[in-house]
Amino acid sequence: MFMTIWAIVADAARARLFALEGRGAPLKELEDLIRAEGALKGGEIEADRPGRTFDSAGSGRHAMEPSLDPRKEEAQRFAREIANQLDTSYKNHDFERLCLIAPPEFLGMLREEMDSALADAVAGELNKDLTHADTDRVATEIWALL
Protein backbone atom coordinates (compact mmCIF):
# COMPACT_ATOMS: atom_id res chain seq x y z
CA MET A 1 0.00 0.00 0.00
CA PHE A 2 1.32 3.43 -0.96
CA MET A 3 1.28 6.13 1.68
CA THR A 4 0.07 9.63 0.89
CA ILE A 5 2.95 12.03 0.43
CA TRP A 6 2.55 15.78 0.44
CA ALA A 7 5.07 18.26 -0.88
CA ILE A 8 5.28 21.94 -0.09
CA VAL A 9 6.99 24.09 -2.72
CA ALA A 10 7.45 27.53 -1.20
CA ASP A 11 9.30 30.80 -0.96
CA ALA A 12 8.62 33.95 1.08
CA ALA A 13 5.72 34.98 -1.18
CA ARG A 14 4.10 31.76 -2.39
CA ALA A 15 3.45 28.21 -1.22
CA ARG A 16 2.12 25.42 -3.43
CA LEU A 17 0.90 22.23 -1.82
CA PHE A 18 0.96 18.97 -3.79
CA ALA A 19 -0.12 15.39 -3.09
CA LEU A 20 1.13 12.06 -4.39
CA GLU A 21 -1.42 9.38 -3.69
CA GLY A 22 0.12 6.39 -5.39
CA ARG A 23 3.03 5.22 -7.47
CA GLY A 24 2.41 6.32 -11.03
CA ALA A 25 -0.49 8.57 -10.01
CA PRO A 26 -0.27 12.15 -11.25
CA LEU A 27 0.89 14.86 -8.92
CA LYS A 28 -2.14 16.78 -7.71
CA GLU A 29 -1.92 20.45 -6.68
CA LEU A 30 -4.08 20.91 -3.59
CA GLU A 31 -3.52 24.56 -2.81
CA ASP A 32 -1.68 27.65 -4.04
CA LEU A 33 -1.15 30.31 -1.37
CA ILE A 34 0.07 33.71 -2.49
CA ARG A 35 1.37 36.05 0.18
CA ALA A 36 1.35 39.56 -1.32
CA GLU A 37 3.34 40.95 1.61
CA GLY A 38 6.23 38.61 0.81
CA ALA A 39 6.83 40.32 -2.53
CA LEU A 40 6.91 43.84 -1.09
CA LYS A 41 10.06 45.77 -0.29
CA GLY A 42 10.87 46.38 3.37
CA GLY A 43 9.81 50.04 3.18
CA GLU A 44 6.46 49.05 1.69
CA ILE A 45 5.75 46.61 4.51
CA GLU A 46 6.71 49.11 7.17
CA ALA A 47 5.02 52.22 5.79
CA ASP A 48 5.25 54.42 8.88
CA ARG A 49 8.25 56.69 9.28
CA PRO A 50 10.77 55.46 11.81
CA GLY A 51 10.71 56.99 15.28
CA ARG A 52 13.22 59.65 16.29
CA THR A 53 15.68 59.57 19.14
CA PHE A 54 18.13 61.96 20.79
CA ASP A 55 21.87 61.32 20.77
CA SER A 56 23.21 60.22 24.15
CA ALA A 57 25.71 63.08 24.03
CA GLY A 58 24.87 66.46 22.53
CA SER A 59 21.64 67.79 21.13
CA GLY A 60 21.43 65.86 17.84
CA ARG A 61 18.45 63.77 16.77
CA HIS A 62 18.27 60.95 14.24
CA ALA A 63 15.83 58.37 12.91
CA MET A 64 15.78 55.02 14.67
CA GLU A 65 16.40 51.97 12.51
CA PRO A 66 13.95 49.08 12.74
CA SER A 67 15.39 46.29 14.87
CA LEU A 68 14.50 43.55 12.38
CA ASP A 69 14.20 43.36 8.62
CA PRO A 70 10.45 43.65 7.86
CA ARG A 71 10.74 41.31 4.86
CA LYS A 72 12.40 38.66 6.98
CA GLU A 73 9.75 39.06 9.69
CA GLU A 74 7.00 38.66 7.08
CA ALA A 75 8.71 35.57 5.61
CA GLN A 76 8.98 34.06 9.11
CA ARG A 77 5.27 34.74 9.69
CA PHE A 78 4.43 33.01 6.38
CA ALA A 79 6.64 30.03 7.29
CA ARG A 80 4.80 29.78 10.63
CA GLU A 81 1.40 29.79 8.85
CA ILE A 82 2.55 27.04 6.47
CA ALA A 83 3.98 24.91 9.29
CA ASN A 84 0.80 25.31 11.36
CA GLN A 85 -1.37 24.26 8.41
CA LEU A 86 0.87 21.26 7.69
CA ASP A 87 0.90 20.28 11.36
CA THR A 88 -2.90 20.30 11.52
CA SER A 89 -3.16 18.21 8.35
CA TYR A 90 -0.54 15.76 9.61
CA LYS A 91 -2.38 15.31 12.91
CA ASN A 92 -5.60 14.73 10.91
CA HIS A 93 -3.76 11.94 9.02
CA ASP A 94 -4.17 13.68 5.66
CA PHE A 95 -0.63 12.56 4.76
CA GLU A 96 2.11 10.31 6.13
CA ARG A 97 5.28 11.79 4.61
CA LEU A 98 6.29 15.30 3.55
CA CYS A 99 8.77 16.77 1.07
CA LEU A 100 10.02 20.34 1.45
CA ILE A 101 11.21 22.33 -1.56
CA ALA A 102 12.26 25.93 -0.95
CA PRO A 103 15.20 28.32 -1.29
CA PRO A 104 17.76 27.74 1.51
CA GLU A 105 16.78 30.65 3.79
CA PHE A 106 13.05 29.93 3.61
CA LEU A 107 13.65 26.19 4.01
CA GLY A 108 15.43 26.99 7.28
CA MET A 109 12.49 29.11 8.42
CA LEU A 110 10.07 26.26 7.69
CA ARG A 111 12.23 23.84 9.67
CA GLU A 112 12.33 26.26 12.63
CA GLU A 113 8.54 26.46 12.74
CA MET A 114 7.83 22.71 12.59
CA ASP A 115 7.17 20.70 15.70
CA SER A 116 9.16 17.50 16.17
CA ALA A 117 6.44 15.09 14.96
CA LEU A 118 6.01 16.97 11.68
CA ALA A 119 9.78 17.29 11.25
CA ASP A 120 10.07 13.50 11.65
CA ALA A 121 7.58 13.06 8.77
CA VAL A 122 9.88 14.88 6.34
CA ALA A 123 10.99 12.37 3.69
CA GLY A 124 13.22 14.78 1.77
CA GLU A 125 14.28 18.38 1.28
CA LEU A 126 15.47 20.31 -1.75
CA ASN A 127 17.12 23.75 -1.69
CA LYS A 128 15.49 25.18 -4.83
CA ASP A 129 12.87 27.73 -5.74
CA LEU A 130 10.33 25.84 -7.84
CA THR A 131 7.30 27.99 -6.99
CA HIS A 132 6.92 28.98 -10.65
CA ALA A 133 7.83 25.59 -12.14
CA ASP A 134 5.24 23.50 -13.97
CA THR A 135 3.74 20.45 -12.29
CA ASP A 136 5.80 17.97 -14.33
CA ARG A 137 9.05 19.57 -13.18
CA VAL A 138 7.87 19.60 -9.56
CA ALA A 139 6.87 15.92 -9.82
CA THR A 140 10.29 15.00 -11.22
CA GLU A 141 12.04 16.74 -8.30
CA ILE A 142 9.75 15.12 -5.72
CA TRP A 143 10.31 11.61 -7.11
CA ALA A 144 14.07 12.27 -7.02
CA LEU A 145 13.78 13.03 -3.29
CA LEU A 146 11.92 9.82 -2.50
TrEMBL record:
Residues 45-75 are annotated as: Disordered. InterPro entries: Host_attachment_protein (IPR019291). Residues 62-75 have a biased composition (Basic and acidic residues). This is Host attachment protein. It comes from Thiohalocapsa halophila.
